[in-house]
Amino acid sequence: MSDKEISKRARRGSGAMTLRDVAKLAGVAPISASRAINTPDQVSPDLLRKVQDAVNRTGYVPNRMAGGLASSRSKLIAAVVPSTLMSVFMGTIESLNSTLFDGGYQLMLGQSAYSASREELLLESIIGRRPDGIFLTGIMHSKRGRTRLLASGIPVVETWDLTPTPIDMLIGFSHADIGREVAYFLMNKGRKRFAFVTADDERAARRVSAFKLAVAEKGHPEVFVVNVGASRSLKSGRESLLTILRQAPQIDAIFCSSDLLALGVMTEARVQGISVPHSIAVMGFGDIPFVGDMVPALSTVRINGEKIGRLAAQFLIDRAEGKIVTPREIDVGFSIVERDSA
Predict the structure, then answer these.
(1) Is residue 68 part of a domain?
(2) Contact predicate 213/241, CB 8 Å
(3) In terms of C-beta distances under 8 Å and separation of at least 24 residues, what long-range contacts does 152-156 make, across chains too?
(4) How many CB atoms are closer than 10 A to CB 199?
(5) d(CA 89, CA 305)
(6) Distances from the Cα of 104 to the Cαs of 15, 126, 164, 289, 321, in angstroms?
(7) b or e along 28-52 (b: 16 or more beta carbons within 10 Å of the residue's beta carbon)?
(8) Does residue 162 sit in the same domain as residue 226?
């Protein structure tokens, strides 16, 4: 069974990879494959190697719930999100949970903390419990993760991003478009010297790249980038502005990869006696609750997270109940919210 055949089978919804599939690929009996997976210390090294190779190729994950359910449907939807603490994803999670609950489904939530390795471990645990659907925040870039999700036969919806090669269903928006449009917005305000404060995140990196390209195309100086690593805190935002003041004091506009970082920048600006937006314009991303009530109110990029959660929940419910989902890919777009800070 080739990788292409595995992918086609999953996309057709023809079912999950089974132990029998693994055994066939390994050239062993199903009982031998079962022993290799469940009691590896009790089989020969050669048998173990053959079965492990077949497992890796098919993406097979043992069904830990086998025999434990009265029906073939668990009424459970699993979601993997980067974070829930002061998170831009809270509206999506709440809407997802509410819509699922109204449809008779329960939500199981796992946090990846923006870690690819942690996300893979979560997915292995989730697939082994065979939920009726899986919600992903972002696109699954890991080849191993994609193979496992395709092989599981479980409906999957990827969100908060776009890709030409979704695993199954997709609801998102273009991060590159956001970077470009925010650059145009700030340049149209007369800003000419830019900084980007960003966390270490693949989606944010695409916003940074598009922002830098748009600025360069207009002949402005190169964008000064401050990468705060895994941190997305107010403190990191404050420290970022200090870095900018030391190394690029001429900056007159700052785009931040999250509202929290932007609030940190504005907090430090107030401490330093710098006027926002007169001396420095500040833009955030996410439009989390309360940023519109700050002084000055934060200009930011708004994503309709509630719509993403609602649509994703309905997609997964429909698929779990055997209905056809069409269209399977939706671009929800975004909007720039102009307030006092820019």
Answers:
(1) no
(2) no
(3) 152/10, 152/16, 152/17, 152/59, 152/61, 152/127, 153/9, 153/10, 153/13, 153/14, 153/15, 153/16, 153/17, 154/16, 154/127, 154/130, 155/13, 155/315, 155/316, 155/319, 155/320
(4) 21
(5) 7
(6) 23, 19, 32, 29, 12
(7) beeebbbbbbeeeeebeeebbebbe
(8) no
Task: Sort strands 335-337 and 133-137 into parallel, antiparallel or unpaired.
Answer: unpaired
Q: What is the pTM of this model?
A: 0.81
> Domain residues for 40?
18-58
Rg (CA), the chain: 23
Domain count, the chain: 3
* One pLDDT digit (tens) per residue for the chain, 342 residues: 555 655 555 444 446 788 888 899 999 998 899 889 888 888 999 999 999 998 888 888 776 555 444 446 789 999 999 887 767 899 999 999 999 999 999 999 999 888 888 988 899 899 988 999 999 999 998 888 999 999 899 999 999 999 999 999 999 999 999 999 999 999 999 999 999 999 998 999 999 999 999 999 999 999 999 999 988 889 999 999 999 999 999 999 999 999 999 999 999 999 999 999 999 999 999 999 899 999 999 999 999 999 999 999 999 999 999 999 999 999 999 999 999 999
82 and 43 in a single domain? The answer is no
Element of type H or E holding 134:
strand 133-137
Backbone phi, psi, residue 101, to 5°: -60, -45
* Token output for 252: 């007159």
